[in-house]
Predict the structure.
Amino acid sequence: MKLYRIGELAKAAGVSERTIDYYTKLGLISPETRTHKNYRLYSLETLNRLERINQWKQEKYTLEEIRARLEELTDINEEQVSEKLTSLELHLQQLEREVKELEPLISQLKPGQANKVYTHIMPSSLACIEALRLLMNHGPFT
């Protein structure tokens, strides 16, 4: 398992060492272990956690809101994940049915009309598709 010293972690996460210290003090992250010289060592999980924190900060969440979200993630159990994935699968099946219903209508659109529709829909749809792809490739599904 790769462990990062504070400077390595800061560089990998794109934050300052001072931010790492602050987040550690707040309890948002914690070191995996310490060296014999008392250097803090952080895991890849901490790097992932920092990336998640940065994303939420960009979405304008406060540090307190971020702490609550992180606690929710920590408290999730296998049954909850299974329920969420089942729910997601049902939503995807519904979306697939709706897309099939739209196919005949879309094929009747003039090229200009189709482009206009796609420009409004595609960015958010592509983002959703990409998020699902990452979920499927990141988990035990690969």
The beta strands are 3-5, 33-34, 40-43.
